[in-house]
Amino acid sequence: MMKKTVLLMASLVLTLMPFFTGCSRAKGGASERSEGDVATTTSLDSYPIKTDVTLTYWGELSGSVAANYTNLGETPYGKAWIEKTGVKVEFLHPPAGGANEQFNLLVASGDMPDIMDRDWLNLYPGGPEKAINDSVILKLNDIIDKYSPNLKQVLDSHPDWARMVKTDNGNYYGYPFIRGNEKLCIWHGPYVRKDWLEELNMEVPQTFDEWHEMLTVFKEKKRSPAPMVMMITNNDFLLGYGIDRAFFVGDDGKVHWGSMEDAFRDYLTMMARWYKEGLLDPDIATLTSQQISAKVTGNISGATRGSLGGSLGTWTNSARATNPKFELTAVPYPVKKKGDKPKLINVDNLYTGGFSAGITTSCENPDIAARLLDYNYGEEGYIFNNFGIEGVSYTMVNGRPIYTDFIMKNPNGWSVAQSIASHARSAYGGPFIQDLGYFEQYMALPEQKAGPDIWKIDAPYKHKLPPITPTPEESREFARIMSEVNTYADEMMVKFILGTEAITDASWNAYVNTIKRMGIARAVEIQNAALARYNAR
Predict the structure, then answer these.
(1) Domain map of the chain by residue range?
(2) What's the rounded Cα separation, in Å, for the pair 436 and 418?
(3) Distance (Å, rounded) from C-alpha 203 to C-alpha 206?
(4) CB contact set of 479 (below 8 Å; sequence gap of 6+)
(5) What is the CA radius of gyration of the chain?
(6) DSSP structure string for 166-193
(7) Do residues 86 and 52 make contact, with C-beta atoms less than 8 angstroms apart?
(8) pLDDT tens per residue, the chain (537 residues)?
(9) Which of 256, 284, 254 is CA-nearest to residue 268?
């Protein structure tokens, strides 16, 4: 009763204040499963279990679900999960945009739901080890050993995954959302209007010089006022300089902060020149996603960047309603010299921290909670979470689960994402392992399917910072430094690109020295210490 009261109070408070929220997204399983991928150590007839326990499960309601339901328990997925596991679940959701505030209220009350679906790695101050030490969530090592044989088998079979989902002290803290195939982690990058290239008899650009030539032709022959449209903070073109704007792992195996490297100055110089020549959107510093969408679909811009689903898919379907020839294609990340290969691309870690289901210290039946969650990591739960209910949302075709027309051509007019989300969690995330077969079917356009192969590089994680965990003390110091550093760096990047601050030796040295005075060396030191601990796990 207390839990419901606290949630009700939290919801009431949240309706009276503004909120800001973010989201994120992510086995080549049934369609591309290799030996040792997902094996169950218990027979499937161990579910449903016999229990009268009702568990409370808190988490944000995905927008794909919220479009048609007010609670996960109302969906075919929620009802089937309860039936298949034998565990009664009461799903609790914060108001849209109010997850952080309600989470803080629940934690402060000391009376929390049994399970909380949360990014403990990035959103809990001090990280997951601090959440354990604060008696918010349970350390799961013994619980997984005793009550979660499916997840234990998965982690034992994939030490690289296991290293990602535990703390530096070796403690498991949540039932993780793991993308089971690298392709699922490569989902956004640069695009070009292929139909424009064909009309102008041009090849797909490979180098920055070729991009400059292409954008110039777009401006002159297509009369485009914004040949390339993207937000000024996007780093797709910076990656071609061999660095990231934020933290990345250098060739020396150490952490670097890219926004003060000489290569960053070179990038800013190029972008400032492109902006001055009218090759970039004149409103690049203030663009919204809606404005970008309008310019891409409205034949104003010929180059951009974005995601495969919400950008490429949405834009193509929208534009083809009036322009059947519209074709947007993913193109390789540009490089400085012809024949060079990009060292970095936009790629997510297989585990990013999101949708990690922690069992709270308020849970009186952690064994039942563990059995409920462990179902998702067995063979049956794996298929269920990715494809839903056999005969309704998918059928088996040549040994592969294939979405039915009810999902792909929903009679209610729902989008494919909404249709999948009503029967499975693969369209957004949760405590399970995502299957590549979901992606291959969800991305209906050939342009979408081709994206990851066009963007991929030989060693995408060589320079990618893994999911490290600074200590609570380090986290506080790091947050203080980077709040100031990022604000200043963002302001200066805008000034440099727009030309309101000329890029000279004097201005660049002043910028770098200011960043140094703000403590960037200490922030890099903290990241390197955390990386060393991660590598030692």
Answers:
(1) 2-17+50-183+350-388
(2) 18
(3) 9
(4) none
(5) 24
(6) B-TTS-B-SB--EE-SGGGG--EEEEEE
(7) no
(8) 444 444 433 433 333 332 222 333 233 333 333 323 333 334 434 899 999 999 999 999 999 999 999 999 999 999 999 999 999 999 999 999 999 999 999 999 999 999 999 999 999 998 999 999 999 999 999 999 999 999 999 999 999 999 999 999 999 999 999 999 999 999 999 999 999 999 999 999 999 999 999 999 999 999 999 999 999 999 999 999 999 999 999 999 999 999 999 999 999 999 999 999 999 999 999 999 999 999 999 999 999 999 999 899 999 999 999 999 999 999 999 999 999 999 999 999 999 999 999 999 999 999 999 999 999 999 999 999 999 999 999 999 999 999 999 999 999 999 999 999 999 999 999 999 999 999 999 998 999 999 999 999 999 999 999 999 989 899 999 999 999 999 999 999 999 999 999 999 999 999 999 999 999 999 999 999 999 999 999
(9) 284
User: How many Å apart are CA 25 and CA 428, to the nearest integer?
Assistant: 6
* Burial per residue of 223-253, b for 16 or more beta-carbon CB atoms within 10 angstroms, e otherwise: ebebbbbbbbebbbbbbbbbbbbebbbeeee
Rounded to the nearest 10 degrees, what angle do helices 505-517 and 520-535 cross at? 60
Contact 458, 186 (CB under 8 A): no
CATH number of 2-17+50-183+350-388: 3.40.190.10
From 209, 230, 185, 456, select the one nearest 343 (Cα to Cα). 456
Name the β-bridge partners of 330.
Answer: 191
Q: How many residues does the chain have?
A: 537
